[in-house]
Description:
- By secondary structure, the protein is mainly α.
- Among the domains are: 10-50, no CATH class; 57-117.
- Helix content is 52%, strand content 4%.
- It is built from six helices and two strands.
- A two-stranded antiparallel ribbon has the order 1-2.
- A hairpin with a 5-residue loop joins strand 1 and strand 2.
- The longest helix is centred in the middle third of the chain and has 59 residues, at 57-115.
- It is flat and about 115 Å long.
Amino acid sequence: MGSNPTFGTANTRLQTGVFVDGSACTTLAEPLACRYDKGMSRSPRDQSRNTSKPLSGMQILFASILAIGLLLAINFSSRIAAGQRIQRDRQALEMEIATLEAERAALIQERDYARSDEYVVSWARSEGKMVQPNEVLVIPVPASNPLPTATPTPLPPEALFPQEEPIVENWRLWWALFFDSDPPF
């Protein structure tokens, strides 16, 4: 065999190691297509191309790095979400603490006022009805004679029992609601 394969008889061997029927195939690119078109079986070399190859070490390493990276990304995103939740809770608690501290300060101020002499004096004068020396307590008393009250005048019987309005048929009420006018008949 030389550098150029010859085609002429059946079962001529090409440089690629594939047997083809020389009458139909004329180039090196066509032998496989010719063989499959004529219904011939595949050679062992062709069958190895279609079967899955075992994974190489580099592919396994890449797949494991990818899986670990995916797990880390999921874990990182869940930590970010938890951190945001904690930050919102922290801000809410800080606001509640500020509100409670302001309320506490107001209560302390009210307590200090209730302990002071000013509060005792104001309570004694307003609710305790007490006076200091050289003062006179004045309590207004209602008059012994009650004031006359006006008596209402009775209404005439016609005003108590108004005349009943005539009963209107339902269809006339509906007509008036829809058309704002009396029915034509």
